[in-house]
Every structure is written in structure tokens, then in C-alpha cells.
Design a protein that fits this description.
- This protein has a single domain, classed as Ribonuclease H-like superfamily/Ribonuclease H (Nucleotidyltransferase, domain 5).
- It is built from 3 helices and 5 strands, in the order E-E-E-H-E-H-E-H.
- Helix 1 runs parallel beside helix 2.
């Protein structure tokens, strides 16, 4: 018996490639942990035309209101896309981000759930961002440790005299 050739159940949508800078951006979150184990989140915004990263927002907690505030700051600096591609995370389906996008004529394009191939260019961008954040956190942690040691040494020398 001959097997039937498997065919896709739907048409595959090819994402159009942008022609100029700031035409299309992608946004997503990258999670990491500090040396002390505390979790941090990074909102990465990437211009899909030239793979430039106009902004990375790092904090312990990032809400939809904060995402809209970051986009407003970028808009005030003259950077505003026509389209932003995002996943279906709670920060991206928030009323605050939807209101900001509507007010400024920016289309939010949500990738289909379970289809990470639609954001492959973002996946390629996360690795350098993660390496930068890790090295910065390790460097900052080392500086703090050295500062704490020098203060402790001064205190010990002062008490021994």
C-alpha cells in the first residue's frame, strides 16, 4: 500500500521583508538570572530590516504599561515602526500596549501560538543579548564583591588598632 504524501492543512504565510529601517520591529522577552539567583527579564526590541536593537529594557518585572512607556520614549526620539511583531504573552496583549499602538497607527502582528519559526530572526538575536547581560552582571557582581571586601578589610584593620 502506497502512503499518501502529507500536505499542510493551511496555506503557509510568508512574512514580508521590510524595505527600510523602522518599518517592522519584533519584540520579545528574554529571561535570565543574576549571580545571586534573582530572575531578571529583558524586553528586546529589534528592527527586522537591519537587525539593529533600538532598545533593551531590563528589570525584575516588566508590565504592558512599561512596554508602552518604552515604545513612547522611542517614538519621542524619532523611532516609530509601522508594524510590531509579538507573541501572545500577557504584556503584549495588554490594553495599554493596544491603546498605544492604536493611538500611533502601529499595527500589532501576533505570531500564531506554537509557531516559533515565525520569529526565527528574534531567536538568532537573543544569544548575543544574553551573553552581554551575563557578562555585564558578572562584571558588576565582581566589582561589588571587591568593594565589599575592601570595606570589610578597612573595618577589620580599624578594630584591630
Amino acid at each position: 500500500m502506497k502512503r499518501r504524501k502529507k500536505r499542510p492543512s493551511h496555506l503557509r504565510v510568508v512574512m514580508p521583508t521590510p524595505n527600510v529601517a523602522d518599518e517592522s520591529w519584533t519584540m520579545d522577552f528574554v529571561a535570565d538570572a543574576l549571580v545571586n539567583g534573582r530572575r531578571i527579564r529583558m524586553l528586546t526590541i529589534i528592527d527586522t530590516w537591519n537587525r539593529e536593537c533600538p532598545h533593551i529594557e531590563v528589570d525584575f518585572s516588566l508590565t504592558g504599561v512599561r512596554v508602552a512607556r518604552v515604545l513612547e520614549q522611542l517614538r519621542q526620539r524619532g523611532r516609530c515602526p509601522n508594524l510590531i511583531q509579538v507573541d501572545n504573552g500577557p504584556e503584549f496583549v495588554s490594553k495599554a500596549l493596544d491603546a498605544w499602538a492604536h493611538e500611533h497607527g502601529v499595527k500589532l502582528q501576533f505570531i500564531r501560538p506554537g509557531k516559533p519559526v515565525e520569529r526565527i530572526h528574534r531567536e538568532l538575536q537573543w544569544a548575543p543579548a544574553r551573553r552581554v547581560s551575563e557578562s555585564a552582571c558578572v562584571h558588576q557582581s565582581r566589582r561589588r564583591t571587591q568593594a565589599h571586601r575592601s570595606v570589610a578589610n578597612r573595618l577589620q584593620l580599624g578594630s584591630a588598632a
